[in-house]
TrEMBL record:
InterPro entries: CheB-like (IPR008248), CheB_C (IPR035909), CheY-like_superfamily (IPR011006), Sig_transdc_resp-reg_Me-estase (IPR000673), Sig_transdc_resp-reg_receiver (IPR001789). This is Protein-glutamate methylesterase/protein-glutamine glutaminase. PROSITE patterns: CHEB (PS50122), RESPONSE_REGULATORY (PS50110). It is found in: Cytoplasm. PANTHER family: PROTEIN-GLUTAMATE METHYLESTERASE/PROTEIN-GLUTAMINE GLUTAMINASE, PROTEIN-GLUTAMATE METHYLESTERASE_PROTEIN-GLUTAMINE GLUTAMINASE. The gene is cheB. Belongs to the CheB family. Keywords: Chemotaxis, Cytoplasm, Hydrolase, Phosphoprotein. GO terms for biological process: chemotaxis. It comes from Paucimonas lemoignei. GO terms for molecular function: phosphorelay response regulator activity; protein-glutamate methylesterase activity; protein-glutamine glutaminase activity.
């Protein structure tokens, strides 16, 4: 059975190019193409697609309004097609919060040629979306409502937060998983380094969004920063993020070397640097994502003495990266996303002081 794809985009050129890309694949087919959400609504009823590609900015009905209604009334895998602009990245972050599985960016120039070059990327994201676990969107919070404080209690061992590090890797579905994890981090948590597969420009919007929501400080890593407790540093979309030492301090390093496992930033690069620099002082966390990036790096972390956690299959959007890490024996604990922050902090409280003697 071929994956049935419905394209929603106000650009006739984009619809044509996307149709050419998708229909060239043996395992997928375009069952409809809509210029706006109103037409798309009828085509969904007629064609019952497996995956929807949705333009972020469209006439007649905003793409976000349509996505919110869709995920509430008929949840289905959606891949956003976004412009690589500051506004486009902010809207895309909101789309992922609303339940979109993933996104792909439109080329800035020579759209037809650029989109054809993106064939592998677009079709891979559609294949991933077709296998993703999609949930109904939660009810919208009333405007001005106060969000409850979901952060966990402060750590009992004050030394733990200054010496230990939490190292996180994620991909498809990771933006929401990371948000849920960080929302539970208390202000005295250890420094956190994060690699999330995401293009340049979008990581900055992602970090700003998290910083506005979390009790801890969240930023896009700039390189050579001292890693501080109560702070999280996200790999920028243009570079690998590495952990390094400067005297007695941990610092961030950026590297624009070639992609690893087809990704830059790569989770393996971050995890391997943590294994080399932090040893037992590192706690690894691998979350939802397609592929195997991070598995070997996490195994290296474990061999260096770290304790590693993986998100379980039931709570993953895509159980790819955690499954690979579990399969190679890199993990010590597997659990649902909702419990991971508490388990990580409990481990740090219980074992932190012993690990300081490394």
């Amino acid at each position: 059975m071929k994956t049935k794809v419905l394209i929603v985009d106000d650009s006739a050129l984009i619809r044509s190019v996307m149709k050419e890309i998708i229909n060239s694949q043996p395992d997928m087919e375009v069952v409809g193409a809509a210029p706006d959400p109103l037409v798309a609504r009828e085509l969904i009823k007629q064609t019952n697609p497996d995956v929807l590609t949705l333009d972020v900015e469209m006439p007649k009905m905003d793409g976000l309004d349509f996505l919110e209604k869709l995920m509430r009334l008929r949840p289905m895998p959606v891949v956003m097609v976004s412009s690589l602009t500051e506004r486009g990245s902010d809207i895309t972050m909101r789309a992922l919060e609303l339940g979109a599985v993933d996104f792909v960016t439109k080329p800035k120039i020579s759209i037809q040629h650029g989109m054809l070059e993106y064939t592998e990327l677009i079709t891979e994201k559609i294949r991933t979306a077709a296998r993703a676990r999609v949930k109904a969107a939660p009810p919208r919070q009333p405007a001005g409502s106060v969000q409850p404080d979901t952060s966990l209690p402060m750590l009992r061992n004050p030394l733990t937060s200054s010496e230990k590090l939490i190292i996180i890797g994620a991909s498809t579905g990771g933006t929401e998983a990371i948000k849920e994890f960080l929302l539970q981090m208390p202000s005295d948590c250890p420094g956190i380094l994060i690699t999330q597969h995401m293009p340049e420009g979008f990581t900055r919007s992602f970090a700003k969004r998290l910083d506005s929501l979390c009790k801890i400080s969240v930023c896009e890593a700039a390189g050579d920063e001292r890693i501080l407790p109560g702070h999280a540093y996200i790999a920028p979309g243009h570079s690998h993020l590495l952990l390094a030492r400067s005297g007695a301090n941990y610092v961030t390093r950026l590297d624009q070397g070639p992609p690893v496992n087809r990704h830059r930033p790569s989770v393996d690069v971050l995890f391997r640097s943590a294994a080399e620099c932090a040893g037992k002082n590192a706690v690894g966390v691998i979350m939802t994502g397609m592929g195997k990036d991070g598995a070997q790096g996490m195994l290296q972390m474990k061999h260096s003495g770290s304790y590693n956690f993986a998100q379980d299959e039931a709570s993953c959007v895509v159980f790819g990266m955690p499954r690979e890490a579990i399969a190679v024996g890199a993990t010590d604990d597997v659990g649902p996303l909702s419990e991971l922050p508490g388990r990580v902090l409990q481990y740090l409280t219980t074992h932190g002081s012993r690990a300081l003697r490394v």
